[in-house]
Amino acid sequence: MNTQLIQDVKNKYIENFKTEPLLIFSPGRINIIGEHTDYNDGFVFPAAVNKGIAAAIQKSDSNISTAYALDKNSKIEFDLNQIKPSKEGSWQNYVFGVVAEIQNRNKVIGNFNIVFKGNIPGGAGMSSSAALENSVVFGLNELFNLELSKEDMIYISQKAEHNYVGVNCGIMDQYASMFGIKDNALHLDCRSLKSTPHKIDFKDHQLMLINTNVKHQLSDSAYNDRRSACESISELLGIKALRDATEGDLKSIEDQVTPENYQKALYVIQENERTEKAAQAIEDNDLETLGQLIYASHNGLQHQYKVSCEELDFLVDQAKANKQVLGARMMGGGFGGCTINLISKTEAEAFAETTSKAYKKAFNKDCSVYFIELSQGTHIVEL
Ligand code: GLA
Q: Per-residue pLDDT averaged across 83-97, rounded?
C-alpha cells in the first residue's frame, strides 16, 4: 500500500480542515497492447498499477469548496454554483470537470474539500489524470450518496476530460483505473465495456516501464486529430467505428483518403487484431509471440499512426538490441511518456542500467525505470 502517500494527504487534510477525511486511492494504469484502439470501439489490454493518486475528501459546512494539489502546493477555492473551465488550464480542470459532469446528470452535491497527491509523474502516459478524475467522482459519490455505478463514474471522468481538459480521450484509462484487479490485466472490449481479467504471471519474465521523462508539445491536439481522422474514415465506410472495418474494406476506399490517413486506419485495424492475438498468447503463456506483437505495435505507432518520438524509439531500439527483452513499445497517447518492456527477470536490472546510461548519453537527460505491480482499482483505504 502507498501508506506514506496516503498519510501525507490525510495529515494535510486534518491540518487544513480539522476533520477526519475519507481516504481514497485511485491507480494509474499500464497497457500491455491495444493503443489508440479504445476510441475506435476496439480492444485494449490495460491493468491498474500500484502507483496513482491518494485523495483525502470530506463534506464542508462552508459556502465554498476547496481543492488542494499537494504536489504542486497549489490550493483553490471555488463556488459549486459557478463551475466553469479555468483558463489557466492545468490540474483544477480535472476537478471542475468532474463536478460539472455530476451536476449535468442532475445529481446534487454539497460543498467539499479535497487534498490529493500522486506518485505518477504527469506526462508519463500512465493516466494520472484518469486517476485524479476517478478519485474525485468516487469520493463525491460516496459522500453525497449519488448512487452512481462504476460505469457512470468512468463516463463522468471521461466527459470531464473531453469538456474541461479538451482531450477527446477514449475510455481505457478511466476503466482500468476504476475496475483494476490485483495481479490481473483486463482484456477490454471498449464497445460493450465488458472485460475479461487475465492473471499476469510471466514466470521468469516481467513487465518494466521506462519513462523518457519528456512530453512533447501539441500532443493533445495531435491526439484529437488522430481521433477525427479515424472518425471520418468510419463515416466514409458507413460504419460506426473502425472496429467494424477489415483491411479489405479499407482497401476499397483507398483512393478517397490521403495515404497518411490510410496508414492510420490500417494501423487501428491491425492493432485491434494484435490485441486479440495477444490475449490468446497470454492464455497460452506464449511470451515469444506476445513480445513480437508488442514490437509490432510499436512499429505501427511509430511509422503508421505517427505518435511516437525520438526518445521512445531510442528506448525501443535499445530493447530490440537485447535478446532478453521479448517486446517493447511506447505506451499511452504517445509523444513522450513510458515504454513498456517484457523482459527476463534476471536481465531487468542490468538492462535498466545500460539503457539509462545510453539514454543519458544520447539526450543528455535521465530516463526513469519503474517496476510495477498490478493492483486493485479505485477504492477506499483505511490506515
Ligand atoms: C490516452 C487516452 C486513452 C487512449 C490512449 C491511447 O491515454 O486517454 O483513451 O486512447 O491514449 O491508447
A: 90
